[in-house]
Amino acid sequence: MKLGNIVLEKTAALAPMASVADHAYRLMCKRYGAAMVTGEMASAKGMFYSDRKTAELLSVTGEEYPMGVQLFGSEPDIMAAACKKAAKFSPQFIDINMGCPVQKVVSTGSGSALMKTPQLAADIVKACVDAVDLPVTVKIRKGFDNDNINAVELACMLEEAGASAITVHGRTKRQMYNPPVDINIIAQVKQAVSIPVIGNGDITTPQRAAEMYQKTGCDLVMIGRGSYGHPWIFEEVSRYLEDGALLPPKSVEERLEIMLEHISLICKFKGERLGIRESRKHAAWYVKGMRGAAKFRNACGQLASYEDVVELAKRVKAENRLEEE
Fold first, then answer.
1. CA–CA separation, 85 vs 76, rounded Å?
2. Domain that holds residue 81
């Protein structure tokens, strides 16, 4: 897939997940072969008023390339101004969020609310495209609800407005993240536009990634929640698409070593106090499916230091060795 001057491997990209896909998370996924990463969603209005926290979400490092940043907002002029500010952080593309289903975002007329106002959505994309010399991409959903399925119509308007690529999540806003995912709508968008289309929704295994490619004809697949506690999924997808082989599952010890490395990175970038607080959810994802996972997930919520994480890993290893014996 080509995005501007960037050539992307046809494997899997990391989704721009708020409060999850931070610098440490993106680095871990890049290490295991993510074809592309996108920063956490940042508020255009927050940038307009020089919100420091929002600016931190736009940080880009060369080791994360190919990488873009994601903005949300509902006013074309403010979005255009935010794009100009975002461009100073040297992303390779700017993504516009028109798919977030969270009420806090939707209530401002942003995120998936823009699917109800397609002309405004197109005006926002045109304003952003005119503002920067970078590819502008858009992430949308199937529709707002089952009575308003308009991904195809909206995608055509966004292409006309100058979007360089479109990511389609195969659910409506009303569904949030509940099943099922409609991959047929992704196929319909792909048939309707000439720009690249990225398929997204419930890609949790290499087989599902391959199915998304096969059944939709999309140019790239995007993985979000399927990477929780499982950043090596990108490596698995790459191998499966290459020769149909499934990599052997990682052992408990390997998974815990990756967890420790990941949480160490979070603490390095954010400091131990904040880093550990934000690591609790990651630790819970890493231990999912292991023996004693329920009690260990409770322990994850009590983590207060990196040493606590190391001790947790020791306890999980010991419990799972007992199961092997």
1. 14
2. 2-243
CA-CA distances (angstroms) from residue 115 to 66, 82, 139, 141, 293?
28, 21, 11, 8, 39
Own/partner long-range contacts of 275-279 (Cβ < 8 Å, ≥24 apart): 275/306, 276/303, 276/304, 276/305, 276/306, 276/308, 276/309, 278/19, 278/22, 279/303, 279/309
Q: Are residues 137 and 274 in the same domain?
A: no
Count how many domains the chain has. 2
CB proximity list for 9: less than 8 A, separation 6 or greater: 35, 238
> What does residue 195 show for φ and ψ, rounded to 5 degrees?
-85, 160
Exposure of 42 by Cβ count < 10 A (0-12 exposed, 13-18 middle, 19+ buried)?
Answer: buried
* Tokens representing residue 239 in the block: 């191998």
Q: What is the pLDDT of residues 211-224, one digit of tens each?
A: 999 999 999 999 99
253-278 burial: b if 16+ Cβ within 10 Å, else e:
eebbebbbebbbbbbeebebeebbeb
* pTM of the full structure: 0.95
> Do 27 and 130 belong to one domain?
yes
What residues are labeled active site?
100
Is 228 in the same domain as 302?
A: no
As a whole number, mean pLDDT of residues 228-233 equals: 98
